[in-house]
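Weekly modeling sync, notes
Attendees: S.R. (lead), two postdocs, one rotation student

Agenda item 3: backlog of single-chain predictions. S.R. asked that every request posted to the team notebook include the full sequence so nobody has to chase files. The rotation student volunteered to paste the first one in as an example of the format we agreed on. Action items at the bottom.

Example entry:
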Amino acid sequence: MKLRVLGCSGGIGAQIRTTSFLVDHDVLIDAGTGVEDLSVAELADIDHVFLTHSHLDHIAALPLLVDSVGAMRREPLLVHALPETILALRQHLQLDDLARLHRDPAFRAALDAVRAAERRRAGGAR
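Predicted structure, as returned to the notebook:
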C-alpha cells in the first residue's frame, strides 16, 4: 500500500493544501484542496473517496473532482461517509445535480452512508 499526502493543513496559501491522502492510485481519504494538484489522469483513477467529516477543509475539492472527470468515468465515484456527512453533502454541495446538468448518470458521485467502525472494501484494501 502506498500513501501519498496531498494536503494536511486546515487552510490554504503559499503551497499549503487542506486535508487529502491518496492511497495507492484509486482511493482518496478526504477531498481537501490537495486533490487539485493531481493530474486529470490521476483524478480519473480515483474510484473511492472516504470522507472523515464535512468540514470544508476535507470536502472542498469533491465537487470539482466529480465535475472534472465525471464524463471520463463509466461508473460513479463512490463516496463513503457517515450519514451526517452524506446529508451535508446533499444539502450543500448538490452533487446529485451534476448528473442532471450533464444528462449522464455516470457523471455523479454515489453516496454511501456508513456507520462508525464499519468496514468497506476499496480496490485491493479494506
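Discussion: group reviewed the output briefly. The longest strand covers residues 3-7.
Action items: rotation student to repeat for the remaining queue; S.R. to check formatting next week.
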